[in-house]
Amino acid sequence: MNKNGMNGKGMTQAGIRRTLVALALVALAVFPLVSDDLYYQAMLILTFVLAIGATGWNIMGGYAGYISLGNSAFVGLGAYTTGILAAKDNLSPFLGCLAGGLVAAVAAAILSLVTRRTRGMYFIIVTFAALQLLGIVATIWSGLTGGSQGLALPIPTWSLTYQNWPFYYPLLALLVLSVAVSAWVRRSKLGVGLFAIADDEGKAAGLGLATNADKLIAFVLGGTFLGVAGGIYAYYVTFLNVSAVFDIVTSMLIVLSALLGGRGTLWGPVLGAFIIEPLANLTSTSLGGANAGAIRLLLFGGLLGLVVLFLPRGLIPTVSAWKTQRQGQGQKQPDPERLRLPLAATMTQEGDQTEAAPAQRPHADATTMAGTGTVLAVRGLARSFGGLRAVDDVDLDLPPASVTGLIGPNGSGKTTLFNLVDGTVRPSSGRLTLAGRRVDHKSRQARAHAGLARTYQLPRLFPSLTVLENVVLAERRFSVARLFLPRVTVAERGRAMAVLDDLGLAQYASTSPATLSYGQRKLIELAQVLWLAPALILLDEPAAGISPALSQRLAGMIRHLRSEGVGVLLVEHDVAFVASLSDRVYVMANGKIIASGTVAEVSADQAVVDAYLGDQVALAVGNPVESAS
Amino acid sequence: MTELLQVLIFGVLTGGVYALMATGLTLTFGVMKIVNMAQGALLILSAYLCWTLWAHLGIDPLLGSLIVTVPLAALGILFYRFIVERVQRHDHGLTIVVTFAVALVAEAIIALIWGPNPIAATPAYFNQAFTLGSVTVPRAQLYACLLAVAVTALLQLCLRRTWLGHAITAAAENPEGARLIGVEPKRIGTWIFAIATATTAFGGAALSFLYQFTPDSQDTWIGLTLSVVILGGLGSVTGAFAAGVLLGLAESVTSTYISVRWSEAVPTILILLVLLIRPQGLFTLAARQDAAV
Question: Which residues pair with A391 in a beta bridge?
Fold first, then answer.
């Protein structure tokens, strides 16, 4: 089998890589013992610091996609904490650097908490400003930091025969540790969460992922390593001054290393650092004179620019993409539109596969909810954008175990209503009760945890994750322990493969959803949100743009959900599709509910015919008559 | 009372200059969502060019800035076409990194040409002042502020009255819609960068006789211009003007009543406060995407 062959080859390649890494590590470990060349020892010490910095940066900047230009602040905090403790309290710098790591971790946690709503370039600006501010504060607070005069640390007292080993080995150990932690992050639920955040943070929140906690942990991990490294570095250089320690250029070298090697890869930042720092060393020894600083800036600024322009993914991803392209030409893609068997058929044989899929798993919440009468109660919900009332005083009740259709012309407020219910948009006024809990000012996570799920008209899946990982991503509750689990646990794999098998998509389990067709992605997204075992599910135009066969399967799945006690709210333009499924239909126009009732009642309503069903008439009608129902 | 009045006058004048320095960033940030970290370097470059015209040819920096607009506009076009636009196409998030790289390269080139020592232009009026009763109005500051008002007004007029201005506004509000009606983003982007860097020449001229500058002072100015733009709400030219004045006042009050050294921290503190508390800026209304509570 082709697939096994590929895997076998992949194993040997991983084996080669592991051997190479082990050899490099051994070489680095014995180097100071066999060579007394202090020049190379010094170069390697600085390389380790940069590699640790880049690896730490990569957890937030690479995995989660949050680029920071302020990471040298953590080096500075670690260095100054260590330096101050050593200078004022005579604490050994090797203990002081741990305190440095702690201070950096606390700073990272604070920064992460206050920036939890800050995205994209705003986050970059905040990190940049925070670094500048720290530099200014450190200069002003000269009683503590020595200000512009600088701060001298005690000179190391060990015998010269040990050279710089007491700096070299702790930093090497710290580098190994930071790479190990980074590797662990990649393999854990935490890492999956971070990759999901990089792809689509809003969607991740809607699946109940604790995005803020994930980001906080990622930022703290990166900051801690930099803080400890900064502490050891402080002792190594024995003299700190603000402009050198809180230097934006250090941040730049960190970012450059990570980008050059490959942002988001495990080894990329290390590789980048092992290229950049020796280059920096070479230029600083070979260049002299007044212009040396400017030439170095030109070199590294230019290199950063060239990497972003011509090697934006970095060395490792570019090389591996080139390799797979060379060997992977002959691979045959299975027919993307092929669907194994109609779902309706499997549905009727329920008894055989009770535990097969979450969709077929009765959920406790949904069943207990049956008693209370509604899974979703909307009262007087309104949202204005400027002068436009997109959703205007909407009341809506959704009983469990029912399908409710929501129809109306484009721009009538259906999607805004969905956004209000799932928390993407906050209401101007009104109340929202989900499974008995008031949620109108709750986060998206809280709503997902309360049992809300939503699909999108254009499916929003995570291209950085495999199809299988996409399916098992959703979380019904937050627990820290869960973050430590592997990406996909054995139990999850079993259940998810059954779901994928059922959808006829099992062979795509380990590919990116980006390679799937539109219809397949719709199915995967449905499976993904059903993993929440929701009490209420919002479907945004599920039947739009898919084949009739698929839409029949979909109808079967919706009916099945209803039989399991789930409340379904369906926005759909295919009126026949809505009519065949819905127990009750609401009609929206201009942000208001203009009619509600059974399909028969609504379609007899003149206002509905005017506003929506009769397309030709709809254009001419100015003010819909208030409905009788 | 006189002291307060003096502080206010000085704050307003300085603020006008800050707004002028940030104009270029206001345009690229507001319309194209591109944070041009090279704004500080472009300012410093303009200041060096104005200084050179003044020192070697005796051209007043205020007049010299008109000449400097030409090479700056050309630089802006090249910068956009060969760097920013290419990066923006595959990863918008990296534009900030690449403009940062350009800032470092520019700083290095400036240092290689003009050397690392601080300089400043000293035209006849640079340390003169008008006296009104007990308050003094420094002439240099006043001229720079008037220049700021003129440039802001002209720019605002262009945005409101010309086809290009409408196209720019349209592209800012709805890039896809603008493309559908024939407003090609790349062409608009080129124009915006040309205008943005050209107006930076005026900010640089003001800088050249108001402050001492070195190649690495670009770092300070990027922080300051960023804070003006963020405070003003992205892309609003008048908002940026108001923000500049507010910032100038805050600095002037801080340095008079607290300490000169803390006034240096005012821009960064304001950036952090605004981004953390009211990310849409102080002078903007909630837009549809903002989903403000």
Answer: A383
Tell whether B115 lies on the interface with A, counting CB pairs under 8 A.
yes
Tell me, yes or no, if A113 comes closer than 8 A to chain B by beta carbon. no
A425 touches B at CB < 8 Å: yes
DSSP H helices in chain B? 2-32, 39-57, 61-79, 85-90, 95-114, 139-161, 163-173, 175-180, 185-210, 218-232, 237-257, 260-263, 266-277
Q: At what angle do helices A518-530 and A548-563 cross, to 10 degrees?
A: 10
**Is B123 contained in some domain?**
yes
The predicted structure's pLDDT at residue A344: 35
Is A133's CB within 8 Å of B265's CB? yes
Q: Cβ of A117 and B279 within 8 Å?
A: yes
Beta strands in A536-619 (DSSP E): 536-540, 567-571, 584-589, 592-597
Our CA angle for B238, B239, B243, nearest 5°, is: 120
CB-nearest partner of B275 from A118, A137, A300 = A118
Q: Which two tokens stand for residue B237?
A: 């030219």
| Residues A595-629: tens digit of each pLDDT | 888 888 887 777 777 777 665 333 333 334 333 33
Q: What is the pLDDT of residues A439-454, one digit of tens each?
A: 888 889 999 998 999 9
Q: Do A294 and B285 touch (CB under 8 A)?
A: no
Q: Is the dihedral of CA A38, A40, A43, A47 positive or negative?
A: negative
Distance from the A236 Cα atom to the nearest Cα atom in chain B, whole angstroms: 27
Confidence band, pLDDT 50/70/90 cuts, at residue A353: very low
Highest mean predicted confidence (pLDDT) among A433-437, A527-531, B134-138 = A527-531
Residue B18 has pLDDT above 70, yes or no: yes
Own/partner contacts of B185-191, CB < 8 Å, gap of 24 or more, are B186/B85, B188/B31, B189/B32, B189/B80, B189/B84, B189/B85, B190/B77, B190/B80, B190/B81, B191/B164
Of the candidates A117, A125, A301, the beta carbon closest to that of B230 is on: A125
Rounded to an integer, the average pLDDT of B262-274 is: 86
Q: Does B293 map to a domain?
A: no
Q: Is the pLDDT of residue A333 over 70?
A: no
Q: How far apart are CA B198 and CA B76, in angstroms?
A: 8
User: Rounded to an integer, what distance in angstroms lies between the CA atom of residue A201 and that of residue A199?
Assistant: 7
Q: What is the ipTM of this complex?
A: 0.88
All structural domains of chain A, each given as residue ranges with its CATH number in brackets, are 36-251 (no CATH), 354-457+535-620 (3.40.50.300)
User: CA B276 to CA A413: how far, in whole Å?
Assistant: 31
State if pTM tops 0.80. Answer: yes
Question: Looking at residue A619, what is its pLDDT?
Answer: 36
Q: Which domain holds residue B93?
A: 2-282
Distance CA B49, CA A568 (A): 67
| Closest CA–CA distance from residue B130 to any residue of chain A (Å) | 34
pLDDT tier for residue A550 given thresholds of 50, 70 and 90: confident
**Per-residue model confidence as pLDDT tens digits over A58-87:** 999 999 999 998 888 999 999 999 988 888
Q: In sequence order, which residues have a C-beta less than 8 Å from that of residue A133 and are 6 or more positions away?
A: B265, B268, B269, B272
Q: Which residues of A touch B215 (CB under 8 A)?
A: 294
Question: Which of B90, B97, B117, B259 to substitute to test the interface with A, most A CBs within 10 Å?
Answer: B97
Q: Is residue B288, in this structure, part of any structural domain at all?
A: no
Query: Apex CA A241: angle with CA A236 and CA A243, to 5°?
Result: 120
The position carrying tokens 């100071």 is A32
A436: left (phi over 0), alpha (psi -120 to 50) or beta: left
Is there a domain that residue B218 lies in? yes
How many domains is chain B built from? Answer: 1
CATH number at residue B20: 1.10.3470
